[in-house]
Known about the structure:
Receptor ligand binding region domain-containing protein, ANF_lig-bd_rcpt, membrane, transmembrane helix, single chain, transmembrane
Amino acid sequence: xxxxxxxxxxxxxxxxxxxxxxxxxxxxxxxxxxxxxxxxxxxxxxxxxxxxxxxxxxxxxxxxxxxxxxxxxxxxxxxxxxxxxxxxxxxxxxxxxxxxxxxxxxxxxxxxxxxxxxxxxxxxxxxxxxxxxxxxxxxxxxxxxxxxxxxxxxxxxxxxxxxxxxxxxxxxxxxxxxxxxxxxxxxxxxxxxxxxxxxxxxxxxxxxxxxxxxxxxxxxxxxxxxxxxxxxxxxxx
Length: 237
């Protein structure tokens, strides 16, 4: 079973970007005229029940880990990213508190005249970038550019049966770092990406541009003149 995220649906020359689930897909197929192609991010659910509710060193609420629970099906994908963001921070803090050499936050104060920027930010960033946490949206790890290389996509399309009825079937599933497809970041174009999939002779068969929406890391500047800089987790890009 997989959960769908933001999808790019193509109906003729029309393009729609929206969060879409399996029920929405069936409704689109029923109402569409002509061929329909959908590219969407998915979140594979572990078949083992114990892995669904307990991943790594954290326990997931039963209402979130059970794919048959109505609440888990109605949750917005954005909430899953928020959960994983908090999970990453909590995991990083736990690791750093076990490191006695780390600059702790005990020295911080709210008194203005004694306040100074916290010096543990970069160390915290490096700990977060190591990832290795299995969250609700999958395995959380980060490449050099801050993006998660293990993002799952699938391509759905309409098919026509002998009874002239229309249905939807999965043409292809792939991971962004997989060998069967390539994913090129197009950050200049409003964080869009170019999806290109290839045939057996390694010739490009088709390409489509889609907005990326995944947990990533960014560098943020604070204060006048960029005197202090920090790092922030971007929930949605």
